[in-house]
Amino acid sequence: MTLKLAAVVLTATVGISACSSVTVEHAEGRTPSLVPQDFFSGKICADGVVRDRSGAEIRSFNAEIIGSWNDLGVGTLDEVFYFYDEPGAAAKEETRVWTLTPTMTERGAALTAEASDVPEATTMYWAGNAIHMSYMLRYGDPGDTIDLNMDDWMYQVADGVVVNETKMSKFGLHVGQILLVMRKVDNSVGCL
C-alpha cells in the first residue's frame, strides 16, 4: 500500500510541477528593463562556465557578441566563443549567428530566433528585466552531434550587465548548465 501511495504522490507532483512553469511575465515591472533591441545592439563581452549535471565546471569560456538591427527591426547577433576545456589548454573557437525577427504572439510582441545549429526556430519573450527562450541546440562537430534542450533565462542586474543561466536537458533529464555574465562595452574594448 505504501508503494502505491508513493507512486500516486510522485505522479501528482510531476503533474503539478509540469503545469506551474515560470513565464517571463513574472519579471514584469522589475528594473533595469531588458529590451533585446537595446541590450543586443553594439558590442557585448561575455564570460562564463559550463557545468555538468552534478554542478562541476567542465569548461570555461569568453565570448564577443556583435548585435545589429536593420530598418525592418530584424536583428543579427554574431557570436564568437572561445572555450577552454582544461586549465592552460588552447581555446576552441565556436561561432553562432542568431537572426531575430519581430513577431506578434498571443502574449504580445516577441522575436522569432533562428540559428544554423538550432533546428527549429524559437520565440524570444521579454518582460521587465528578463528575457526567456527555450530551444533545441544541435551541438558538436558535423557527423557527431547531440541535440540538447536549452531553457535560457537572462536578467539585467545593472545598466549594461546581464546574467544568463541556461539549463540543458536531454530526454527530459538535466545534463548541465551554462552560467555567464554579459557586459555592453565600447567597440574599442577587447573581450578576451
The CATH topology assignment is Lipocalin
Q: β content, as a range?
A: over 45%
For the largest sheet, list the strands in their spatial order: 1-2-3-4-5-6-7-8-9-10
Mean pLDDT: 91
Shape: globular
Main sheet properties = 10 strands, antiparallel, barrel
Tally of individual helices = 2
Report low-confidence residues grouped into runs of 5 or more. Answer: 5-18
CATH class: Mainly Beta
Query: What is the CA–CA distance across the termini?
Result: 60 Å
Number of beta strands: 10
Name of the CATH homologous superfamily: Calycin beta-barrel core domain
Summarize the structure.
This protein is 11% helix and 60% strand. It contains two helices and ten strands; from the N terminus they run H-H-E-E-E-E-E-E-E-E-E-E.
Write a concise keyword list for the protein shown above:
192 residues; mainly beta
Q: What's the arrangement of secondary structure elements?
A:
Blueprint lengths: L1 H18 L16 H4 L2 E11 L4 E13 L5 E10 L7 E14 L2 E8 L2 E10 L2 E12 L2 E15 L2 E10 L2 E13 L7
Antiparallel strand pairs: 1-2, 1-10, 2-3, 3-4, 4-5, 5-6, 6-7, 7-8, 8-9, 9-10
